[in-house]
Task: structure prediction
Amino acid sequence: MDRRSSVDIQARSRDEALRLALEQLGARAEDVTVEVLAEIENDFYGDGEVLLRVTRKGARNAPPPVEAPARQTVSDDAIEEYEQLAKDLVVELLGMMAVEADVVAVDNPSVMPIGADDPPTVFIDIMGRDLGLLIGRRGENLSQFQYLVNLLLNRQTDDWVRAIVDIEGYRIRREESLIGLAERVGRQVARNRRAISLEPMPPNERRVVHLTLQNQPDVSTESSGEEPQRRVTILPN
Result:
């Protein structure tokens, strides 16, 4: 049995992080304490990320409890370093997949700004031909690729850094489509005074709908259902 007393695990959800930590420790859920060191929920660019510290109960020399790390202003030099690291990782992974493409760092292209509590974030765009397979259905392959990039990136940095990976502006086109959909359905709900449920969406896409309509006085939004069938309903106020 692995007798380590504590592990720090980064994953896409608390359940996944806890599962991985228990496997590494060879422990059961009731035998450990869990601290959330950092968390991003329902982020537009991904399905969310969490950093957990999982410690055996009663372990000697266990790390003291810590607060979630405060976000600090990162220098331009640090951002450039993170961008280069992320670009190098993307290039390496594409090479392993025999995919020929150009990889560039860009400024935040989204109309959804990065929040004050978000980690240092860099934006990487992949440009080339016949990259649809790398995007996948509804961006599922791109989401997995981005997760792998972030996992590898954060093994090389002292800060918790987030890389947003796009392919030929796919994420922005999808964002624009979702904003237009939310606005059209919002007007219809306000006019007819009847709620409308949208198709199931991943957390990042639901967030776009919520943010698009959050300041509309005639409608409100709520999410319901279980993943992966969770969906947004737009209701009249």
Remarks:
- Residues 170-192 form the longest helix (23 residues).
